Amino acid sequence: YPYDYYWILNYINDKKLKQKDIFFINKCHKIDYWNELYTIQQNIMRQKPNIKLEKLFSKAFNNHQAGNLIEAEKIYQKIIKINPNIDVVQNNLGMIYLKANKKKLAQFCFLSAIKINSNYIEAYNNLASLNNEIGQYNKSIIHSNKALEINHNSVNALFNLAYSYGKIGNKKNEIKFYLKTLKLEPEHFSAYNNLALAYYESGETEK
C-alpha cells in the first residue's frame, strides 16, 4: 500500500490527536480504506516542516521587507510552484502585485490565501482595501465585516469599512466606524481627516 500505517500512528501519538481522529484512522486501517489513509498521510507530510521552503520564504520575506520587490516576487513564485497552499505566501505576493498596480493578480492572490485559510484576516483586509481602490465598495464591506468576525478590534477592517460606507453615501456608518477606528488607534491621521470631512459633508460643521 502507498501509505505507512505505523508512521501515521507515530505522528498522531506525538501530536496527541483527538480520540475520534485516532479511531477513524484505526477503522480505515482495519477495513482497508487505503485511499483515506493515503490522503491522511499526504496531508500530514504537507504539514511537516520543509527546510527548503522555510529558507526560501525567509529569503523572500527579507527581500520584501528591504523593498527588493522583484527578487521577492520571483522567490514567492518559486515557493508557489513547490507548494501553492501556503496562505502567507499568496498574501505577500498579492501585496507585491498591488504595489506594482497589478490589481487582478493581487486580487487572485488574496482570494487564494482566503481559500487556503478562511480565517486569514490579513488577506481579508488586503482584499477589502483593493476593492475600495477599484470602486467595489459593497464587496469591500463584505470582506471588512468578515475580518471583523475574526477580530472585532481590527483597525484596518474598521477603517476600510468606514471608507466604503463613505463612498456609498452612508454617512452615519462612515462616522461610526471612523470613531471606532480612532478609539483603537487615536493617532490614525487618515481616519481623523476623513472623519472631519464626513462631519462637514453631514452638516455637522461644529464637530
Question: What does the model show?
Answer:
The protein has 207 residues and is an all-alpha fold. 77% of the residues lie in helices and 0% in strands. It is built from twelve helices and no strands. The longest helix is centred in the first third of the chain and has 15 residues, at 51-65.
Structural features:
207 residues, mainly alpha, 0% strand, 77% helix
Distance between the termini: 73 Å
Question: Helix proportion of residues, in percent?
Answer: over 70%
Q: Could you state the order of secondary-structure elements as H and E? A: HHHHHHHHHHHH
CA gyration radius, whole angstroms: 23 Å
Strand-residue fraction? under 5%
The major pleated sheet works out as:
none
Count of runs of 4 or more consecutive helical residues: 12
Indicate the overall shape: elongated
Q: Compute the average pLDDT.
A: 81
DSSP summary, beta strand count: 0
Specify the structural class.
mainly alpha
Write the layout of secondary structure elements.
Elements: H1 5-15, H2 19-30, H3 34-47, H4 51-65, H5 69-82, H6 87-99, H7 103-116, H8 121-133, H9 137-150, H10 155-167, H11 171-184, H12 189-201
Question: Quick gist of this model?
Answer:
The chain has 207 residues and is an all-alpha fold. 77% of the residues lie in helices and 0% in strands.
